[in-house]
Amino acid sequence: AAFGLYFPRKEYSENVYIDQPAGTPLLHIHALKDSHGEVAHFHLCQNLVISRARSHENHWFQIREKTGLLHLSKSLDREDFNMLSVGNLMQLSKVMLYVFLSPHPFQEKECDSATRTTVFLSLINASAPVCSSLTARQLCFTEMDLSFHIKENKPPGTFHQLQLPSVHHLCQNLSISYKLLAAEGLPFRYNENTTGVSVTQRLDREERERYELITKCTVRDGFREMQVEVPFLVNVLDEDDSPPFLPNGTDTADAVVEFNRKEGTVLATLTVYDADTTPIYPLESSRKKYTGIIITDDPWISETFRVEHVFDEIHFSPNGSQVRGTRHEYKLVLNKSISVTDHRSFQLDVLVNDTEFHGPERSVMLHFNVSILPVSIQFPNMTYQFSVNRNAERFAQIGKICIENCMKFRGVNITYKLLSPNISCYPVSILQGREDKYGSLYVNDSSVLSRPECKEIQYTIQATDKQSRKHAKTLLTIVLEGTLLKKEEDCPDSCAQSKHHAECEECGGLGVLTGRCQWRQGSGKGITTNYSTCTPSIKTCPDGICDVVESKEPSVCPQDCTSGNIIGGHGKGTGNLGIKSGHGICYCFPKQNCYCEKDDIKEQLCDDMCKTVI
Amino acid sequence: LAGPPSPGGQDPHGWRGAVDCVRANELCAAEPGCSSRYRTLRQCLAGRDRNTMLANKECQAALEVLQESPLYDCRCKRGMKKELQCLQIYWSIHLGLAEGEEFYEASPYEPATSRLSDIFRLASIFSGMEPAATSKSNHCLDAAKACNLNDNCKRLRSGYISTCSRELSAAERCSRRKCHKALRQFFDRVPGEYTYRLLFCSCRDQACAERRRQTIVPSCSYEDKEKPNCLDLRSTCRADHLCRSRLADFHTNCQASFHKALSSPAVPPLILLPSPSPHPGAGFDMTPNYVDASTTSITISPNAIQAFGNGTDVNLSP
Q: Sign of dihedral through CA atoms B21, B27, B29, B33?
């Protein structure tokens, strides 16, 4: 992009009063050069912008083409004011003027040059103030901050004039002088004769990107002397003048694919630094500015991998002042899930290119040593053996089935299956959640458990990888143990229905392991996750997860799975399921409400008195 | 010095404030010339790129004709019926007029002309506050109590709180979209005397300031895994008519003006109030909030809040 001349400010502002005479100077606009020998020409667009899309031909303002002095060419009377205030929704009437910049005299009034600055003129519905009514602040400075931007690596030049032309014109008998403080050793100079501030040398943003000076203004009116100080800020704008570099020269990283083979997995990350800044908005153009491309002619590699580029801002301090730079991270990412049978090693090269840097070192090559290891689908070197109490009820959870390293797997879909035995004893089944890497073994038919001929049951478990159809088998032995207890009469189906410790442990319910529900005694401090409740098995319920077995039957563990109302002090669990925390004792009526309440009825203890009676 | 000129249409060819865009659209539809031009313009804008649109002679002609139509000057009312439809009509014209590079946009909402009603509104709030607040008083708690005693406020407040604190899954904390919607309803449908009090209560201690910060359930409506870039957020907001309008309204009403000497002293605190809701971006991608529970650091214009919080006397200059 050809920059050319530019304005050190995006906006200027000044007040215009009724009936100010023609010839009144309003403000001084400066331009800075891109290269030596350029000459700035200023000109105005033909229209004043009043509000969006409402504009009026400019009859009142002119700018000196060479000096950039904006002045009134015709005074504004009340009628002009009224006309220009129409359609202005702001509290104060403001009109906008665009000032354009060109390196050559303007041939015709072209109004589409990209280099423009905006002048906001506040139309003030009063005649110009008298000098004595103005404060020192108003005499010295406009309302706008003295804040400028200067591009790095550009020739020096004057970029601002401190004296306000309008005030100078209005209050000739006042002496107003300025000083630039805190400028020692900085590349800025104030010229007393012209009140101009100039930059004296080429700036380098990578050295320093912000200069904070102070402008001091002294107003003398006869014997009175007033002083005002305002900050004077210069920001240095960046251009792409630094090549990318590698921290400690690291250009190689190992990327190992083993258990995690899922699409989207980040395998390795390499970092590239750049002393230049990278704007984050708009993001896409910055990504185009800095590219990272996989260099390969192997279609399998370009299909299977992609490079993700993220960048963020870092700070470094070249000489005491903080300067911003950029850290680019190039992540090697799996573009699709890799089959468990794939087995390859190769070097993958990524070319990083700083497209806007014009120099020989604009690109760096990154290397990823990729090793894709196969993983085997196999059970650990042992057979599974679980014992099941004969009094267990349907949905009692017996144990988990898992192939080697199954919990580390990602992107590998393993399904577990029980191959049915040839006998009629067949009490258990296996279930698997949608994202679960393991299978849950549970009692599916509790009537089998009471049959004396069923003692030891042998199953074969098969684990299959969906994608590669690879599978493994192992043996599972279920041993039935314990003696049958007499079933209590009129016990509810669900353990969760019991309100008290005693009745809880007298009854069974769906999901119990040994024929009896278990009581969990909570801490009883307000609303807590550790509430008291009656459950088929403290290990699995309530644990805050509505697992695959519990979700098959709502009566098993409503504490984890209920989606109904909970009455009393409580907090709901994830996804609005279950009771995460409760007050006192929580109990539920399956498919209806749950209740959490403090237990006021203390269970009668037999004291010494009663024992004697007995 | 006189106050700023009221934008109410005293000028015959000035602001015809009475017409809202839905009505203007009906008027335009009744005129064949206007309606065909309006259709043309909408087709021009469907391409979404202003520069290509203006390069087209037909589009430019349509725009020029429409500037004379009631559509050009139409505005919308906050919380009106068919507000969204009204805003769509507004932007369908103004997107074509907009300077794409403009940082501030004019508000599509009618300027709040009735400053008096705001003063009464303020007065009603202050009357609800205890005079000479003791050091123990907690304005934010009082505001919550006041809200709970009003059926409408209570219903909508508990509505957004339960929506915003409903955990969906371990990965997704809440439905941000639904939370924002519920927040919008709360701020749009509950009178300012309740909502302002909740949002802009003044605090002397940390607990109160934390309660104030928690008003909009920031964990769901405000916080993000990573802080996005403000310009990015702004362009997201500008792609949505409602968000864009509220942002423009906020800018229009809350821009710091240096001309304090020239505007009546009542204007700075009051000008903030007519914004569509006390929380101009609440319930949008650009949700502002208190950054921390400090008792003084305030993200929304501090002088408005202070004028609000301590019941400053408001002088009305005629």
A: negative
Q: Of B5, B169, B263, which is closest to A85 when you measure between CB atoms?
A: B5
Please indicate whether, in this complex, the C-beta atoms of B231 and A281 are within 8 angstroms of each other: yes
More reliable by pLDDT, B215 or B313: B215
* Chain A residue with Cα closest to B107: A89
Beta-strand pair A146-151/A61-63:
unpaired
Beta strands in A321-433 (DSSP E): 323-334, 344-354, 363-372, 384-389, 397-401, 414-419, 428-431
**With 70 as the cut, is the pLDDT of residue B184 above it?**
yes
Closest C-alpha among A241, A62, A235, A71 to residue A159: A235
Gap between the Cα atoms of A550 and A559, Å rounded: 10
The SS3 assignment for B85 reads: helix
Residue indicated by tokens 């008519």: B241
Model confidence at B229: pLDDT above 60: yes
**B167 and A572 Cβ atoms separated by less than 8 Å:** yes
Least CA distance to B228: which residue of chain A? A280
**Is residue B115 predicted with pLDDT exceeding 50?**
no
B102 interaction partners in chain A (CB closer than 8 Å): 52
Q: Which of B6, B229, B237, B254 to mutate to test the interface with A (most CBs of A within 10 A)?
A: B229
B107, B169, B262: residue with CB nearest A575: B169
Contact: B167, A572; criterion CB under 8 Å: yes
Cβ contact (<8 Å) for A52 and B262? no
Q: What is the CA radius of gyration of chain B?
A: 21
Single-letter code of the amino acid located at A407: M
All residues of chain B having their beta carbon less than 8 Å from the beta carbon of residue A122 are 259
Could you say which residues of chain A have pLDDT below 70?
1-3, 51-54, 86-92, 108-114, 421-422, 600-614
Residue-level pLDDT at A595: 93
Paired with A459 in beta bridges are A476
Asked whether residue B310 carries a pLDDT value surpassing 90, the answer given is no
Distance between A132 CA and the closest CA of chain B, angstroms: 16
pLDDT of residue B122: 53
> Which residue of A lies nearest to B109 if distances are taken between CA atoms?
A89
User: How does pLDDT run across B28-83, given as a tens digit for each residue?
Assistant: 999 888 899 888 888 887 765 666 666 677 887 887 788 788 888 788 987 788 98
C-alpha B88, offset from chain centre = 16
pLDDT of B312 higher than 90 = no
Residues of B in contact with A88 (CB under 8 A): 7
